[in-house]
Every structure is written in C-alpha cells, then in structure tokens.
Fold each of these.
Amino acid sequence: MRESVQAEVMMSFLVSEELSFRIPVELRYETCDPYAVRLTFHLPGDAPVTWAFGRELLIDGVGRACGDGDVHIAPADPDTLGEVLIRLQVGSDHALFRSGTAPIVAFLDRTDRLVPLGQERSLDGFGTSLDEALDRILAEEQSAG
C-alpha cells in the first residue's frame, strides 16, 4: 500500500547576501521509497524543480552540518537551531535555501509516524520493489553496453 506525507513550507531562496525571496517548497515522503524525501521548489517563472535525497540526511542536517556531494544541510545558527540551510549543487552551480526548523521537524515527525527511522526495510514489498528496480537498471546497462 502506497502512503505518503506531504507538507508545504515557505523557504527563502538566497540569491546573494543582499537578495532573497520567499518561495513555496513541497516536502514529500512516500512509503514506496522509504529512505528518501523529495523537495519540490516552486521558483517564480520556472518549472518546479524536485530534488530527492536521504530522509536521514534531512534529519541529521537539522542539528548539525552534514552532507556530501550535491546536497548539504546545516543549522543556520548551531546555538539556536531555529533555521536550517539547504545547499543544492549541480556542477559549479548551486542554490541556497533557508527555512524555519519547526516545519521541517513537524514533517519529519509525520514521516517517522508513518515509517519509523530504521524500519524502512521492513515495509511489505519494499525488498521486491528494490530487486525489480535493480534488475531493470542492470538490464538497461547491459543493453546499452
């Protein structure tokens, strides 16, 4: 059974030190992909952009700086934990967003009630879905190579 948790959070898109603007960001968690969260950024004048990354990364990033590669999350001020910074990077381009911590923690709490952290693998059918996805990826690689 596919279940999900959604929330809309207003975040500041930090264009520069002098310029930022508020945008709606949809947070989504689905039991069919229990390790990931998806953030869809609704930038003015552009099509929505969705990023998927580990739910545990978002959980950890609320309290301490973490992340490798394209996604980095950290408290804006480690002493107060009132806001969190999310940095997304593709090549040399990056985007920085700031959000209040409370709505993100509320969203994560709802995901934990749906699938407790550490219990992702126990979901019915998750192993089968993962095996099917891996088989499909391997078949595509073999036919391309």
Amino acid sequence: MDNLDKFDIAILGELQADARLTNAELAQRVGLSAAPCWRRVRALEEAGFIKGYRAEIDRHKIGLGVLAFVRLDADRNTGGLTLAMEEAIRKIPEVVACHYISGTGTFELQVVARDLDSFSQFARDVLLNLPNVKDMHTSFSLGEVKASGALPLTHLTRTRA
C-alpha cells in the first residue's frame, strides 16, 4: 500500500476532520460505495497510515491551564543513557509530546499542568530527577494560535498529478 490514490487521500482527510463518521457517511463524502470504502479504511489501518482514533479533549475544561515547552539537556548523549531517558519520559502522563531534537538540548517536551505552582512542583520532583538530566529550560504558552493535530495532505495530491 505504498501508493495512495485520490480515494485513500480523501479518506485520510475526512477521518482527520471527523473520525466519528460512519462508514456510509465517509463513503458518500469520498465518492465510493460502502464496501470498498470500508476495505480501504482497513487497508490504511493495517498499513499503518491510520495509527488510531481518539477524542480531542479541551485541556482547559479538565483543569490543565498550563502548557509548558521544556528543553531537557542530557548530561551525556550515549545510546544507553538516551534510551533510559526516553523510556522514563514515555511513562509520564503530563508529558503530552516529546521530540529528540538537534541543536541546543536533547529533548523538547510539551508538558501540561493545572497551574504554575503544580508545574513547578512537577518540574522539581519529576523532570529534574529523570535519568541523565543535566539542565532544563522552560517556556510557557501564553495562548494557542493553532493546535490542530491534522496533517497536511496536499503534497500527496500534487505528486499524483
């Protein structure tokens, strides 16, 4: 399933916009009948294009008013120590995203917390005690301009033309 056609791309776009669509609704939107649409969705899932489905929750509504961007610098960047750090970070629910980065720093984390006091306590108790952490630099979001998880698909249609 290396070659996505216009139907596959349309399915991905529609499911990114609303993953709760019924198969019948999805099929109608992309111009297929129900059975071929269902088979394509299953093939996209099996091939790993669709990794899962989840509800998008408003963090403010559940009391997570702080979004922090935390750069962690490793004491030493060796394979084993970096893997230990990665594994520890994966287990922390407050870390909603983590990237291994180039340039200054080793990891860039997105961390949510109730408020600044709870973030401060979390940083002291958890982040600074991760294995191999040398330093930590934090910036706070002052407001979200865009936070969509939808990926652009236009490059896929351009390469097909």
Amino acid sequence: MRSIVPVALGTACVAVLALGTGPAAAAPTATAPQRSGWEPAPSAPWDVAAGERCAFALHGEPIVDEVVRRELPPPAEGVTRSAYKGDLVVRVTNKETGAHYDADVSGSAVVDAYASGAQFWRVVGPVLVGVGDGNLARGMYVVDGVYTIDISATGAKTVTGPVVATDSICDRVG
C-alpha cells in the first residue's frame, strides 16, 4: 500500500550529488592509477522482534547488495560524513507466516554521523526505514522521494520533505 504523505511542508533539504562524474571517473593510467574512493558497504541480515515495528517478528536479508560508501570531508569536528549509493534489494519476511516482500531500496544518501550517536541523512530515492519513535507511525517502511531523516541519539526518526512516499512493509507481509 503506497501512499503519498506530506510529512512536513516548507523545509526541503535537497542534496544534489554529481557521483561518478568528472576527473575521478576517468580511466586510470598506467603511471598514475585513479582510485574512486568508493568501497563496498555490505548490509548484514537483521531480525526485529514482534511489536518493535510490526505486530509480528521480521527478518531482513539483502538479496542484491551492490552498495558502496565514500568518506567525504567532515562538516565539523566530531562529525563524519559519508555518501552511499548502489543497488540494494532486501527480502523482508514475516517470521510467523513466511510471507515476504523484496524491497528495492536503492536510494542514495549523504549521512552525517555525530559522536552522540545521532545521524542526519539527506536522501534521494528509496530506503528502508524502521520506526519505533518518530513522526511516522511505528512500522517498517520503504520511504521514497527527496527528503531528510533526522535520527536522534535515542533512535527517534523524523522524516521530512515537501512530499514523501511511504510503503508499509508491515501491510505487505502481514
């Protein structure tokens, strides 16, 4: 069940990235090999207990994982900034019934990680978001569009953007 939900109007933070273009994308030479700076960033399988996101327990496992990560210059002391891109399809399974959904969550993101454990994501495209506390109802979602995710040090998630599409994984596999 896909819905278009106006999560927060008036604050559109759009990060436009020119990934894979320019001199760094040129073919390497024999005398000076070029490194892209992109390194694999594999996703691990995961489990969520019944009641944490959906009324039933979930298992997630990447079935396509070509995500790469690149460190970017830090915006401030104590903050790391990384860019992520690549194909990612996660099979999310209802552990009680075996029903599953293959979620294409191949979005791109720039993520600031703070020493406190908080994170701030600037996202273009779909990502998988589990929500316990936040401005979306408790659940597991494919969130799509151009938006930000502010994750507090306690794990509360606030998704903002002019219009954000959400697809409930709990509804799909429940």
Amino acid sequence: MRSDEPDEMSGDLPEYAERVLDVADLIPSGRVMAYGDVAEWLGEGGPRQVGRAMALYGGAVPWWRVVRSDGVLLAGHELEALARYREEATPLREAPRGAEGHLPRLDMKRARWDGRSSETGTDGGTDTGDVAHN
C-alpha cells in the first residue's frame, strides 16, 4: 500500500491529507486559500501535495475553496465551482472577451483568506498573501 492511500481495513486517511481537509473546512464561505497557502498554514508540504490530497480525498469538504493561486477555476469542475462561488458571493473577475470559454477567475486579492479571522466581510483577503498559522 502507498503511504498516500487510505488504509482499506480501517478507512483511515493519511495524516497529511486529514490535516489538509481540516484546513479546507476552516475556510469561510465566500473566501478561498491557494494550495500553497494551505501548505504554508500547515508548515509542511507544498502546493502539489495539497492538490494531491484534495484530488484524492477532498470530495467531503468545500473543495472549491482550495484553489490555484492564479484564480483559474479547477479544470473539469469549472461550472460546479462557479455555481458555488456565485452562491457564496466569492469575488470573481470577469474573463476577457477573447478568453477561451469566457469563464471568470477568482479575484484572489479580494477572495483570499489569510486564516486569521472567520469573518467573511467584503474587504477580501490579505494583500500580501501571508497566511497565519494556528
């Protein structure tokens, strides 16, 4: 068995994946954290490790709140994510007319959550991209 797969007997998640999912659960409605933000919050791993944990185990948490740092919507899940962002009033930037698919991007400057507060006010996230640790 690989170390990133759940134990089939117990159904346990790998410890790192469990920690990633715990952070995803903390992100307030209407806000997002980039994969690298989550890794920084945990003080372990990097964006790819967080992305893998979310891809394998993130279906039971608000997966649409853990995103690419450039604000591009998750490939293959764009429409579902977009519907959730609109429902939660997550700040978006409209796509330029020439953009393929005309899908908006997340407005990372306003939507990014810094991890310090559970408030979801309209002031958006941190301008610096710094992430506070527990």
